Amino acid sequence: MSILATIGCTRLVPLRHMVPSTSAGILLKLEFENPTGSMKDRMALAMVEAAEADGRLRPGGSVVEYTGGSTGVSLAFVCAVKRVPIQIVTSEAFSKEKRDHMAALGARLTLVPSPTGGTTKALTLAMIEAARQLAAVPGSHWTDQLNNTAPLPRYERMGEEIWEQAEGRVHAFVHCVGTGGSLRGIATGLRAHDGSVRIVAVEPEESAVLSGRPSGSHKIEGTGAGFVVPLWEGTPADEIQTVSTEEAMATARRLAREEGIFAGTSTGGNVAVALRVAQRLGPGHTVVTIAVDSGMKYLSTALYAGGSAGAATPSP
User: Fold this and answer.
1) Using one digit for the tens of pLDDT, what is the confidence trace for 140-153?
2) Terminus of the chain with fewer CB atoms < 10 Å: N or C?
3) CA-based nearest residue to 94, from 221, 227, 207
4) Is 68 helix (H, G, I), strand (E, B) or coil?
5) What is the domain range of residue 13?
């Protein structure tokens, strides 16, 4: 059996200590159980397999992508298994652990500087342009994650996993928006069973563009591109809530200390908003959210290494 067959079917566990008795229950999908410790393994496999199937990625070709890190690690993993060369555009704005992991899996890295040290619209656009230039080399295939719809069916199946594991008791689903693909796909899978499941999108408070506010710099890696991402269109979200970098990090630390669940900043953001939604719904209801990736990816960052939480400032 290939290691690629181990992607998916991650466990769904209840939070037992952080949730007040006056709130709905919260179930957390442990996506760090995937091979690279991230839900993006599902996405990476879908993008590469789709490109192989339709001939965009041919034998002897290579893969190009821009990424905040987790997608790059997952693509590097899939490409290593398939013996496909990969070039990744990323930035020192993202954790050293992710960059080292990509390199360990054989990826060639191009680093784009971030003047603010965080994720901004300007950084995302600069990374996209660098990837575009690399993809101009004959034989290269640019997976272009922000525009790639191939992962949607795989994320719909993840919605099926959640529904089955929760035994059909899902009243709300809370998840952060990066490319928008996972929220859209999972929501579609859940809504196929119950159209009343409430879908709550999460974005960084410092760059709440989906909420109609200005873009800015934040440190919730993998979320908040700084503009309305293409896959957001068609997302069946009922509401959008924002979470600050500080609250996301504080909640991730609580999750580690109080539940023993060691996860990253975007997971902290997911849980912070899930706690609000659970309080609003009250007992007898169930809220589901995602542990997006492992805290092992953030040991050198402000999340777990101490220091400030990375205060964000507006960008032009």
Assistant:
1) 999 999 999 999 99
2) N
3) 221
4) coil
5) 3-33+154-305
